[in-house]
Amino acid sequence: MRQLLKKNALSLVAASALLASCGPLISFGDEGPADEIYTLRYQGGYPVNATGPVVFIDEPTVADSLKGDKVAVALPGNRRSIIDGVRWSAPLADLLRDYMLRALGASSEVRVVGDGGLDIQSSCRLGMKVWEMDYIPGARAGDDKVSVVLEFTLVRLKDNQLLGMPTIAKEVGTRGSGTNAVMAAFNEAMGDAAGDAASWFGKAHEACNAG
Amino acid sequence: METRASHILVGSFVLAFLAGLIAFAIWIAKVDLDAEYQEYDIFFDGSVSGLYKRSIVYYLGIPVGDVRDITLAPHDSEKVRVLVRLRSEVPVNEETYARLEFQGLTGVAYIEIKGSPQGSAPLKAKAGQERPVIRSEASPIQEVFETAPNLINEAILTVGQVKKMLAEKNLERVSNILENTERATRNIADGTEDLDALMAEVREVMGRVNETAAKLGALADSGNKLLAEDGERLVAEAIETMDAAQAMLERVDALVAANEDSVTQFVSGSLPEVTRMIMDLRSTARSLSRLVRKIEQNPAETLLGPKESSYDVDARKVKETKE
């Protein structure tokens, strides 16, 4: 009995030591100020009573350094960074998917479905590759800009036919200084890109039910 | 002594002389007092140079009338109206036509009337016409005269082209071509010897082919034997296999028939769902693969985030690396 107690005590000490050694690894966050959280808000309406073909918007694939919810910074010399103390309200891929879902759905007769839409039989699948979603600081505050580059692929599911593959690039200068101006520029650039995407999509989707 | 002339005799002589004079004048003028004439219009296309008033009109080479007037056509300045007078016995009908002919190379023209077959309706003036109109056609000589200038121009051009073609340089080339042709002909003639050798080889090859065919025939005979002995067993096995396959197909058919609704539902509903599920799984697998790779590479960074610099927008500079 005594030996059993001794063995348990040794096991307890060993486990405590092991837990203590993991201290540098396990952390519950620093004590710094909380991040500022921004979102991409589509300024148009919501899709209503559409009767056109069903198009499934796939989860966007994002380029290196755009994964997660950090706001990417493109520095001179191909250096990358993130804006300090700022993050998106959700992973960037989710934000962009929801933004495009609203933009394309509101501007056409297409019934656009996104996350969870796999249960619905679709005519087409719209893929999106995010090449750039960067804040590019200039030499002076007035030279700062943001860059958005999105590539779309529209595929007809009946015969896996590629119906279109445009790349839309937008650059918008920041008005003012500070993170608010930067994030406002991101929203403006996304609005412009969504407008172009909607123009293309409005014609391209007609081939979804053809063939 | 006074000469006593007989006034009666003198008057008679004078009257006889005058009558003889008139008869002589009529005979000289060839006036045909008994002849009756009929006037016609003829419209010619283009020039009637060489034709004048009183030019003769012939019918089958017989002078039967003359030209009375030549004017431009009233309503068509491209045509010439020729008024002719023909003896009434000339058979002019709907088939008759006039042609402008020329006497030799003198340029003197006349009109030839042709084509008056019997039985055709006599030519009469139509409404709006002063007199009957004989249709006209261009004579071959007239066409030659009209086209002669063009022919001469073309002939001059042709002569120029021929001269260019027969230039010294081209003559040399033609000479070379002829030499080459002669050489080629000689080669062909020589080549017939090779052709003979080739034919000999072909004959030899055909002999070998015949030999091979005979061997193939023997092989086929042995194949027949093989089929007769071993083939029977193979065929029996094949029939057995086919029977089994047939039975299996019948079972599948019966199964499908019994569950037709379920099969239809699976094909129309479940199968697309499976397809979409595969897409979803593919996406999930991709994400998991990325996560696993990150964990493998750096588990601490996966849990706590990577060490990375951050950019201070207000300070406009990169902050120190986060620990």
Brief synopsis:
Chain A has 211 residues and is an alpha/beta fold.
Your description of this structure?
The complex is a heterodimer of chains A (211) and B (323). By secondary structure, chain A is of the alpha/beta class. Chain A has one domain: ABC-type transport auxiliary lipoprotein component (Rossmann fold), CATH 3.40.50. Chain A is built from three helices and ten strands. The longest helix of chain A is centred in the last third of the chain and has 26 residues. Among the domains of chain B are: 104 residues; 41 residues. Helix content of chain B is 57%, strand content 18%. In chain B, strands 1-4-3-2-6-5-7 form a seven-stranded mixed barrel. A two-stranded antiparallel sheet of chain B has the order 8-9. In chain B, strand 2 and strand 3 form a beta hairpin. The interface between A and B is medium-sized, with 22 and 20 residues. Strand 5 of chain A pairs parallel with strand 8 of chain B, so a sheet runs across the interface.
List the helices and strands and how they pair.
The complex is a heterodimer of chains A (211) and B (323).
Chain A: H1 2-21, E1 36-38, E2 54-57, E3 61-62, E4 70-75, E5 79-88, H2 92-106, E6 111-113, E7 124-136, E8 145-156, E9 161-164, E10 167-173, H3 179-204
Parallel strand pairs in A: 1-5, 2-6, 2-7, 3-7, 4-7
Antiparallel strand pairs in A: 4-5, 7-8, 8-9, 8-10
Helix pairs in contact in A: 2-3
Chain B: H1 7-29, E1 37-45, E2 56-59, E3 62-73, E4 76-87, E5 97-102, E6 109-114, E7 133-137, H2 140-165, H3 168-258, H4 260-297, H5 299-304, E8 310-312, E9 317-318
Parallel strand pairs in B: 1-7, 2-6, 5-7
Antiparallel strand pairs in B: 1-4, 2-3, 3-4, 5-6, 8-9
